[in-house]
C-alpha cells in the first residue's frame, strides 16, 4: 500500500523524531520542479491557523490563492496530505481549483460549510479516500465494475499481480492503513494502460497517472458525483492483508459486497 510513496518518505526515515514543518518546507525547497497551484503559487507549508475570517482564509482557497498548505504538527493525516502533492501535483492542483467556485458560492451566499454539491462531495471522497486502479487488461477492470471480487482477487490472482496496480491517492486512506481493518473500502478511478506501463519505475508511473487523472477531472463529464467513483475493497489486493492468501477470505460478503444494482459497463467517454 505504501510502495508509491516510499521514495518520498525516505527523506524523513533517518529522523528519530517527527519531522518539523520546517523539514517539510525544506523538501519543497529542494524539489527539482516547483509544485504550484493553478494560480501559479508555489506550495509552501504553514502551521494550521484558527477559524477563518473570510472566504480567502478557508483551507482550499488559501492553497489556491497563496500556495499555503496549512499543516498540523506531528499529524499523520497532514503528513500524507503533504506527500500526496509530490505524487500527484497536477491532479491535486486541479482538484483544488475545481472546489473553489462551488465553495465560494456556498460560503458567501449562505455562510454554511455544509450542503456541498455532488461534485464537491465526489472530489472530497477521492482526495481523502481515493485510489487509482490501472490495468492493461480491460476485463479485470470490468470485474471491478461488476463487483466480481472472488473472480478478480482469487481466480485471476496471478493475472492481477502482473497486469493491475492499485495506487493509493487519498491521504486519509494512507492514514487508515496504519491500523488496517476489514471493511476498508476505497473510492477508485479506473484507468486502462498499455502493458509497457508496468515496466516503468514508480516515479514514471506516477507522472503518467497524474496527467491522466488531471485530464479526467478537468474534462468535467466523467467524474461529477460520488457514484462515479468505484467502491473497491483494497484489502483484497494480494499481499495487502496477510490473511488474504486463503480462498475463504473472499467469501466474506460483508466486505466483498455484490454491488449496487447490476453490471456497470464502461462509459464510452471514460479513460
Topology at a glance:
Blueprint: H1 6-9, H2 21-30, E1 44-47, H3 59-66, E2 68-71, H4 76-87, H5 89-110, H6 118-129, E3 130-135, H7 138-145, H8 149-155, H9 157-163, E4 164-168, H10 171-176, E5 185-192, H11 202-219, E6 230-233
Parallel strand pairs: 1-2, 3-5
Antiparallel strand pairs: 3-4, 5-6
Q: Give the neighbour order of strands across the main sheet.
A: 4-3-5-6
Order of helix and strand elements from N to C terminus: HHEHEHHHEHHHEHEHE
The portion of residues forming beta strands comes to: 5-15%
Number of helices: 11
Shape estimate: globular
Number of structurally distinct domains: 2
Biggest β-sheet, characterized?
Answer: 4 strands, mixed
Describe the model.
The chain contains eleven helices and six strands. The relative contact order is 0.13. Helices cover 42% and strands 11% of the residues. The longest helix has 22 residues, at 89-110. It has two domains: 3-118, no CATH class; 125-251, no CATH class. The protein is an alpha/beta fold. The strands form two sheets. Strands 4-3-5-6 form a four-stranded mixed β-sheet. Helix 3 (59-66) links the parallel strand 1 and strand 2 (68-71).
Keywords, separated by commas or semicolons:
alpha/beta; globular; 271 residues; 11% strand; 6 strands; 4-stranded mixed β-sheet
Structure at a glance:
With 271 residues, the protein is an alpha/beta fold.
Amino acid at each position: 500500500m505504501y510502495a508509491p510513496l516510499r521514495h518520498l518518505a525516505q527523506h524523513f526515515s533517518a529522523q528519530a523524531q517527527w519531522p518539523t514543518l520546517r523539514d517539510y518546507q525544506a523538501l519543497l525547497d529542494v524539489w527539482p520542479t516547483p509544485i504550484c497551484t493553478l494560480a501559479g503559487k508555489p506550495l509552501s507549508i504553514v502551521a494550521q491557523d484558527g477559524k477563518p475570517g473570510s472566504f480567502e482564509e478557508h483551507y482550499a482557497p488559501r492553497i489556491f490563492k497563496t500556495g499555503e498548505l496549512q499543516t498540523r504538527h506531528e499529524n499523520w493525516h497532514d503528513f500524507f496530505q503533504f506527500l500526496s502533492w509530490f505524487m500527484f501535483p497536477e491532479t491535486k492542483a486541479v482538484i483544488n481549483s475545481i472546489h473553489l467556485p462551488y465553495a465560494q458560492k456556498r460560503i458567501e451566499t449562505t455562510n454554511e460549510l455544509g450542503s456541498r454539491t455532488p461534485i464537491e462531495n465526489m472530489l472530497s471522497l477521492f482526495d481523502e479516500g481515493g485510489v487509482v486502479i490501472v490495468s492493461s487488461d480491460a476485463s479485470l477492470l470490468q470485474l471491478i465494475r461488476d463487483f466480481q471480487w472472488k473472480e478478480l482477487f482469487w481466480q485471476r490472482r496471478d493475472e492481477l499481480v502482473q497486469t493491475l496496480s492499485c495506487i493509493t491517492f487519498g491521504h486519509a486512506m494512507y492514514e487508515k492503513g496504519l491500523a488496517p481493518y476489514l471493511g476498508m473500502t476505497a473510492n477508485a478511478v479506473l484507468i486502462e494502460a498499455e502493458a509497457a506501463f508496468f515496466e516503468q519505475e514508480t516515479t514514471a508511473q506516477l507522472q503518467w497517472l497524474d496527467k491522466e487523472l488531471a485530464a479526467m477531472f478537468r474534462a468535467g463529464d466523467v467524474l461529477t458525483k460520488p457514484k462515479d467513483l468505484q467502491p473497491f475493497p483494497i484489502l483484497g489486493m494480494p499481499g495487502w492483508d496477510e490473511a488474504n492468501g486463503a480462498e475463504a477470505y473472499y467469501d466474506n460478503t460483508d466486505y466483498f459486497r455484490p454491488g449496487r444494482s447490476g453490471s456497470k459497463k464502461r462509459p464510452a467517454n471514460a479513460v
